Amino acid sequence: MPAGDRTFVHMSFQLPHGVSPAAERALWRHGILTWQDFRWRGRNLFSPQRTGRLLQAILAAEELLASQNWRDYLRCQHPIWLLRLMPVFRPHAYFLDVETTGVRSTDPPVTVAVCRQSQVSFFVAGVNFPELTNVLKQVPLLVTFYGRRFDLPRLRRFGILNTKIPQLDLAPIARKLGFGPGLKGSLRQLGWTWPPGLPQAGAEAPALWHRYQAGSLQALRTLLLYNAYDTVTLDWLWTNLYNVSLRDWPLFRPLALPKIPDVAPAVDQWIKEHLPAMDPNG
């Protein structure tokens, strides 16, 4: 991690073994805006014991950042701390979403969308799934929504993902900040409306897949559109969550929200290249 990037997290007192959101806001109101401020001017705001714990938490965070090891960063599992690291992670992030034939762990994945800098790639069972394994080997960081419990275990179970990749799950972060339920609920609360005509939940994906297996290319197109929007909205959500988490910091300037692309051209191009023999009206 470049040294300059560390300044993005020095305003955060919600650290592993740090303070609560309310205590963090109180520090900011007292003009304690960075870790160095706390060392110089904030030692008398808490009890000696609490001050000592926070100083130890800050030192541990600094040592963690100095390690420049993403796996160490992600291992801490503190949702707000991980969120505050977003400017560090974001340039390297690939966004991923998986659709399956059901919600059981034994239900296989059938489509996967991977997004990098608004460019979406699609992988479909029986068409180009083997390519996904090679793509994932090159990915430095995966960002998902509920991927730790749903997407990645299924990719591993079915032999598609066979390497360990640093992974950030936005679901517990959104939940910690009071958003949800789920991805669609979080997006809606933050002001983005799910496209009309697409499924509203992943539970509808199996029926679309079975219709495709019966010969309906339109069903596959709808499934890929749904899969793609589940992926391309993650960067927008991530940036919003970051802005929300820091909106009370007196010097904070919200990051510009990334544009959510129209994914239909990418879906149609993929179908044209990979399934040219299928009836587009089917």
Description:
The protein is of the alpha/beta class. The chain has 2 domains: 3-68; 88-274, 2-Layer Sandwich (Nucleotidyltransferase, domain 5), CATH 3.30.420. It has 13 helices and 5 strands. It has helices at residues 21-29, 35-41, 48-67, 70-75, 79-84, 86-89, 129-137, 151-157, 171-176, 182-189, 205-213, 217-245, 264-274; strands at 93-100, 109-116, 119-124, 141-144, 167-169. It has a 5-stranded mixed sheet. Strand 2 (109-116) and strand 3 form a beta hairpin. Residues 1-6 have low confidence and may be disordered.
What portion of residues belong to β-strands?
5-15%
The string of secondary-structure elements, in order, is: HHHHHHEEEHEHEHHHHH
CATH H-level superfamily title of the largest domain = Ribonuclease H-like superfamily/Ribonuclease H
Which structural class do the helices and strands define?
alpha/beta
| Coarse morphology | elongated
As a whole number of angstroms, the C-alpha radius of gyration is 21 Å
The average pLDDT score comes to 92
Contiguous low-pLDDT stretches (5 residues minimum) are 1-6
* CATH architectural designation of the largest domain: 2-Layer Sandwich
Number of domains: 2
Strand order of the largest sheet: 3-2-1-4-5
Number of helices: 13
Strand runs, count? 5
Which CATH class of the largest domain is shown?
A: Alpha Beta
Q: What is the percent of helical residues?
A: 40-55%
Largest sheet: 5 strands, mixed
CATH topology of the largest domain: Nucleotidyltransferase, domain 5
N-end to C-end Cα span: 50 Å
